[in-house]
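queue> pop job 88
queue> type: inverse folding (structure -> sequence)
queue> payload:
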């Protein structure tokens, strides 16, 4: 979470490319770290607590099971910080400008089929992501 906070503080918040690059890089890392990696860790922690009992009549899942490693408030705070950074970057997209594109001397005629808003279709996908996040928080809480 600290690395993404530092990256967010260093990028130009008015540059559309840098905001989109931050969001996509974060979402890719979130898929790997919170999706794949945590699934593998959870499987092995569950396997270890069920199959390696401390006592013959008891298993160690109360202390060593999945979701019990680390300080809960610190992990939750880091995760909420990450989600807030993406929501903040997403909310800055409408104010951003296309700064890095080089300007052509001539004119190229083509049919523009995409959206002309800053952030393009990514804004809609992140809105859906935010809605799902809020619904899951409401169901969980």
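queue> result:
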């Amino acid at each position: 979470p600290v690395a993404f906070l530092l990256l967010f503080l260093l990028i130009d918040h008015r540059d559309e490319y840098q905001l989109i690059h931050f969001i996509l890089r974060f979402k890719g890392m979130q898929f790997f770290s919170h999706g794949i990696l945590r699934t593998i860790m959870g499987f092995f922690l569950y396997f270890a607590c069920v199959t390696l009992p401390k006592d013959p009549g008891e298993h160690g899942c109360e202390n060593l099971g999945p979701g019990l490693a680390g300080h809960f408030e610190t992990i939750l705070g880091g995760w909420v910080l990450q989600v807030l950074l993406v929501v903040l970057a997403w909310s800055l997209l409408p104010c951003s400008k296309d700064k890095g594109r080089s300007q052509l001397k001539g004119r190229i005629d083509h049919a523009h089929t995409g959206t002309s808003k800053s952030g393009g279709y990514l804004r809609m996908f992140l809105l859906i992501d935010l809605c799902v996040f809020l619904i899951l928080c409401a169901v969980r809480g």
